[in-house]
Specification:
single chain; Arc Repressor Mutant, subunit A; two-stranded antiparallel sheet; 57% helix; globular
Length: 134
């Protein structure tokens, strides 16, 4: 049995992992900014959809952006401090708030809490390291 996430959540995590990779590979005190066009192409994400996702992430304080010739997107915090759960909630805040039937609500609430615990225990830096080693 797998766990289904929306394309929006999948794209958001992939984009932030890409930004985390750029951050972790750069010199301290900065890092290259990634243009939305480049991220969309490299990650095979529709450009307009990615721009909307990046806007959600920016509003949540996870991503910063800068306009201009040296502009683009980068993580607003260190990759080790951004948890996957933060990214998921930024783009899909209602993922776990739907109404559930009474007989199963306790079970689904426990499943949701377990998923939240896992997502909140994995940072973007963890995913970068895992991707580099496997």
């Amino acid at each position: 049995m797998g766990y289904h996430v929306s394309a929006k959540v999948d794209y958001a995590v992939r984009a932030t992992v890409s930004l985390a990779t750029a951050q972790l590979l750069s010199a301290p005190g900065g890092g290259p900014r990634s243009r939305a066009e480049d991220l969309a192409r490299d990650l095979a994400i529709p450009h307009r959809f990615l721009v909307n996702i990046l806007s959600d992430l920016r509003r949540a304080g996870l991503v910063a952006s800068q306009r201009g010739s040296q502009g683009g997107y980068l993580l607003a915090r260190g990759a080790a401090t951004v948890m996957v759960g933060d990214v998921v909630r930024a783009v899909d805040p209602e993922l776990h708030t739907e109404e559930r039937s009474k007989p199963l609500s306790q079970l689904w609430n426990r499943v949701s809490a377990a998923v939240d615990t896992i997502l909140d225990g994995v940072s973007l830096a963890d995913l970068v390291v895992a991707g580099a080693s496997g």
